[in-house]
């Protein structure tokens, strides 16, 4: 039996086959899950092409997490493919380049607000939109980048990740009585398309392996994807509000 046999997962954030979310979807299918993907706008066609590279081609539904109409329709659009969701994966993040790159003090509210809405508030938006299809035992799992610290160049995206982590705790509180678990995976730097768009990203990734007791491969999304898949499974039935670090151990090391 696979880890996710008989389960259905909704996975956001698949853009290319280099996306962490793509590897989550691939592993989920290999472990027995049925997968539905989301995408939006001009990325939709690219996600449809990428979906065909999975072991089993997955349907793709439209979802812009900043669009109230898309969110209101999500249960219906996903419902065309499944009558329930056992897991929802939040792999969504965006900040204008004007609020990253090392000039934190120059950040202006309109761009900061975009980063917070897309990268943090969207976890709540997605949870509410998917809630009609989620029942006891289901899981909401998101991806973060350790928000305990002020990282070089990450700037307001780091603030957004701190908000994401807090949002996950409140969702764990409010969805727990319905039997829905909410957890995050805090990954080390992975060289995805999104990461490469961060100005100066290489300054974060360059020293990571040297600081990680287990070492770290910035080109390998598999460890992160495995953690996400595991948290969607039944093997963490009493774990919620948690942040699981998949970073080679860097989070536990001093300077």
What tags apply to this protein structure?
9 helices, alpha/beta, about 40% helix, 7 strands, single chain, 7-stranded parallel beta sheet, about 260 residues
Explain this structure:
The protein is an alpha/beta fold. The chain is 39% helix and 16% strand. It has helices at 20-30, 43-51, 68-79, 109-130, 155-175, 193-196, 201-205, 208-211, 222-232, and strands at 8-11, 34-39, 60-62, 85-90, 134-144, 181-187, 243-246. Strands 3-2-1-4-5-6-7 form a 7-stranded parallel sheet, with helices on both faces. Helix 2 (43-51) links the parallel strand 2 (34-39) and strand 3 (60-62). Helix 3 (68-79) runs parallel beside helix 4 and helix 4 (109-130) runs parallel beside helix 5. The chain is globular, with a radius of gyration of 17 Å. The chain starts with 7 loop residues before the first strand and ends in a 9-residue tail after the last strand.
Indicate the topology.
Elements: E1 8-11, H1 20-30, E2 34-39, H2 43-51, E3 60-62, H3 68-79, E4 85-90, H4 109-130, E5 134-144, H5 155-175, E6 181-187, H6 193-196, H7 201-205, H8 208-211, H9 222-232, E7 243-246
Parallel strand pairs: 1-2, 1-4, 2-3, 4-5, 5-6, 6-7
């Amino acid at each position: 039996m696979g880890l996710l046999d008989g389960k259905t997962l909704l996975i956001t954030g698949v853009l290319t086959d280099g996306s962490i979310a793509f590897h989550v979807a691939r592993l989920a299918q290999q472990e027995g899950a049925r997968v539905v993907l989301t995408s939006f706008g001009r990325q939709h066609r690219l996600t449809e092409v990428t979906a065909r590279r999975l072991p089993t081609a997955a349907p793709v539904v439209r979802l812009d997490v900043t669009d109230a109409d898309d969110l209101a329709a999500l249960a219906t659009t996903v419902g065309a493919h499944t009558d329930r969701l056992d897991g929802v994966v939040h792999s969504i993040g965006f900040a204008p380049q004007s609020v990253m790159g090392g000039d934190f003090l120059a950040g202006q509210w309109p761009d900061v607000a975009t980063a917070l809405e897309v990268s943090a508030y969207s976890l709540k938006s997605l949870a509410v939109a998917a809630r009609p299809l989620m029942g006891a035992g289901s899981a909401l799992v998101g991806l973060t980048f350790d928000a305990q610290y002020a990282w070089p160049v990450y700037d307001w995206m780091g603030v957004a990740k701190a908000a994401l982590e807090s949002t996950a705790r409140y969702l764990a509180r409010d969805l727990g009585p319905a039997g829905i678990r909410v957890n995050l995976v805090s990954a080390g730097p992975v060289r995805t398309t999104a990461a490469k768009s961060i100005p100066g990203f290489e300054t974060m990734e360059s020293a990571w392996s040297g600081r990680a007791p287990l070492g770290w491969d910035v080109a390998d999304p598999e460890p992160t994807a495995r953690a996400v898949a595991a948290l969607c499974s039944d093997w963490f039935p009493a774990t919620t509000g948690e942040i699981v670090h998949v970073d080679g151990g860097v989070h536990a090391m001093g300077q």
